[in-house]
Amino acid sequence: MKMLYSWTCILVTVAAAAAGDVLVALAMRRIGDLGDLRRRHGLVSVIARVISSWVLFAGVFFMAIAFFSNLVGLSWADLSLVGPASAALTFVANAFAAKYFLHENVDRRRWVATILVCCGVVLLTW
After folding, report:
1. How far is 125 from 44, CA to CA, in rounded Å?
2. Do 72 and 16 meet the contact criterion of CB atoms below 8 Å apart?
3. pLDDT score at 61
4. What is the residue extent of each domain of the chain?
5. For 40, which of 1, 47, 59, 75 is 20 to 30 Å away at the CA?
6. What is the mean pLDDT of residues 57-73?
7. Could you report the per-residue pLDDT of 8-43, keeping only the tens digit for each?
8. 3-state DSSP call for residue 1?
9. Pick from 78, 31, 90, 87: which is nearest to 57 by CA?
10. Residue 24's closest CA among 67, 61, 74?
11. Which of 15, 21, 120, 125 has its CA nearest to residue 70?
C-alpha cells in the first residue's frame, strides 16, 4: 500500500510541476522580456506587470503543490526512487505540455530523449 501512496505522490508532483512550468512560461511570454521592459519603462513597471499576472501566481501555486507532494512522497519512499522518477517524468510531461499547450516545436531528438527517459524510469522501478 505504501508503494501506491508513493507513486500517487510522484504522479501528483509530476502533474503539478508540469502545470506550474507551463503556466509560468505562459505568464512570462505574456509579460515579455523583463530586461527590455525595465529599460523602456523602469523597474516599477516590471514589478507591476509581474504582480498583476494571475497566470504567474497560478504557476507558482502549482509549483508549491509539487514541492509539498514531493516532500510527502519522500516520507513514504526512498529518495533513490522519488527523486529520479519525479524528475524524469516531469521532463516527459513538460515535453508533451510544450508541444500541445504552448505549441512549441518539439523536434524528433527531444521525443527520442523523452522515450529514453521513460525507459530509464522503467529500469528504475525494477
Report:
1. 49
2. no
3. 98
4. 2-125
5. 59
6. 97
7. 999 999 999 999 999 999 999 999 898 898 999 999
8. coil
9. 31
10. 61
11. 15
Q: Considering only CA atoms, which of 20, 116, 89 is closest in space to residue 108?
A: 116
Closest residue by Cα to residue 9 from 85, 60, 80: 85
Asked whether the beta carbons of 94 and 19 are under 8 A apart, the reply is no
Report the residue count for the chain.
126
- DSSP code for 59: H
pLDDT tens per residue across span 78-121: 888 888 889 888 989 999 999 999 999 999 999 999 889 888 87
Q: Is 44 exposed, middle or buried (0-12, 13-18, 19+ CB in 10 A)?
A: exposed
| Alpha carbons 110 and 107: distance in angstroms, whole number | 6
What secondary structure does DSSP assign to 84-106, as a single string?
A: HHHHHHHHHHHHHHHHHTS----
C-alpha cell at 57: 501566481
